[in-house]
User: Fold this.
Amino acid sequence: MKKLKIFPKTFLYTLSLMLIIVLLSHTLIYFLMPWAYNYQQEKALEADAARLVEQIITAPSEERVNYVTSFAAKWSANANVVYDDFSYHVDLLKEEAAESSPNGKVEVTVIATATEDGLKISLAENPLGGADFFKVEQGFADGAGSITAVVSRQHIEDAVSAVLMILPFTAILCMIISILFALAYSRMFTRPIQQISAATEQMRKLEPDARCPNDTQDEMGMLADNVNSLYQTLLSTIQTLEQEIEKVEAADIQKTNFLRAVSHELKTPVTAVSVMLENMLLGIGRYKDRDTYLARCKELTDRLAQMIKEILDASRAEFAGEQEQTDFLIADALNAVIEPYQIIAKAKGIAFSVDAGEPFAVHFPQGMIEKAISNILANAVSYTKPDGMIHISCKGRQLVIENECTPIPPEHLTHIFEPFYRPDYGRDRAAGGNGLGLYLVATILKSLGISYSFRPSENIKGMSFQIIF
Assistant:
């Protein structure tokens, strides 16, 4: 049984239980029905005999015959009533007994007796064979007479025999009904389980459309709902984990590329300083002019220190989202960093305009937002040609910084946020930055979950940096 599937197992259990009930009920009927029917008839006979006694006592003489005749006719009995001067005998069993009794009388043998309130009912049988009888004896309370009746039990035997005769047929019919019901019940009970099992097999394979059907509101329906909810949560968790894995892999690739770029960028000034110092120590050629080349070494080490500072800023920018966040106005953050770039722009002959628009507040680390805006402004000032313009505006919840310059081609825009990436056109590479400005901006904004874009401006010939808070 342990190896059977749930449908045959449920069918066998249900069918066995129902067959046990059928067999037990038919067995009880077989043994208890004759006793119960005999007991019922005996009680009815007691009641009728007691009623006949009262009727004879209370009725006028001319009506007593009717009562006795009615009693004998009802029970197909031989009745003999003697009361005072009234005596009457009814012999309805005489014809049945005549064939087996030479004198036409019914001879009975007492099997058991029961006496209650002067009424005695004896269970008797015909010694020559045939039906059993009830023998009723009832004396009157004043001793003035008695009632004696012999009642045939043939109708009881016939009724019991008829019922017992159909028991095998009813048992077979009940067994057939039990089999059909067990099949229907097993199918109805196991079908939701089989559906859930099939659905969970699909879920095991992580099929996105897998779902347990639910047509009921009972515990099975609740189970299907719980399984569906659990699977959706699992799929959502797996999707989230896959996204996180992709982010981690992308971050690892980004860090690897960043380290490679850092090592490449640091290698050049370090090598240059090392070569100049070595040549100065050896006094080779022009390097004998130590003051000149010491100044160049100082310049390279200053650039190296600035690059290291920006590299550290870029690494810290990855954790911008973990810093303390406060509510502040974007206009206040812009005003905190804009002044130096206005001075540089004025010195280069660049028109600098600000349209603050409607002030709006945000909830971020203010220092990181200011650093991002500062790097965008530094990039704009560096790339804007003399006599060009820089325009800053706040529209809705957007901060837009536009600068007039040569638009960056699409092939360069795809790499513009990579570390140490510097397009060679429209900008003096030696005088420019080290290519970490926009990388730092992108790192901060991504860490804080802020949307941004950098594309050619639609208003002026140049570039537009948009931050959407």
